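In this supplementary section we document a worked example of the pipeline. Step one takes a protein sequence of length 180 as its only input; no multiple sequence alignment statistics are reported here. Step two produces a three-dimensional model, which step three serialises into structure tokens for compact storage. The input and output of this example are shown verbatim.
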Amino acid sequence: MAQNANPLESPEKVQIHLQEHIDLIARHEQEFLAQRTQSEKLGDRMASFIGSLSYVGAHAAVFVAWVGWNWLPIRGLYRFDPAPFPLLDILFAFEAILVASFILMRQSRISRRAEERDQLMLQMLLLSERELTALLGMERQMAQRMGLHSIAADQEITQLSQQTSIDGVAQGLRDTLPSE
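The serialised model returned by step three reads:
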């Protein structure tokens, strides 16, 4: 088991704390899934089926049966789509449009959820940065009072204990990163 951040906390308390976080994340995911519209739920089910081996197997069976019915010289069978199978081509082209639509709908929903997670992560990182900055400032003050002047005056620690301008970081990234 990983070492505790607080040596006074028991492993059971740490495990309970971790389980609370897991439960919170699971609840957020369940809420997101529950808020989907009926069409989104249908699209997700269709996209899941389209991505399965059952779908591939069903297509292989339909294709073999179709070609066998319309190509093999079996007496008494009416060939409703003789080779080169133009009706089959039309059906598969129409299906490809539907399949692409279902997949794009699902990807759009997944992308929307990823953006929500990114926003949550950004908020958590900003909060963590603010808390760590405050802690470093307090630790510098404690070091000063304890007579640890070299630590309190350390240039890197001093810089890290200053508030970070998020707008400044964002502008620096825009200026530094290549544009599209």
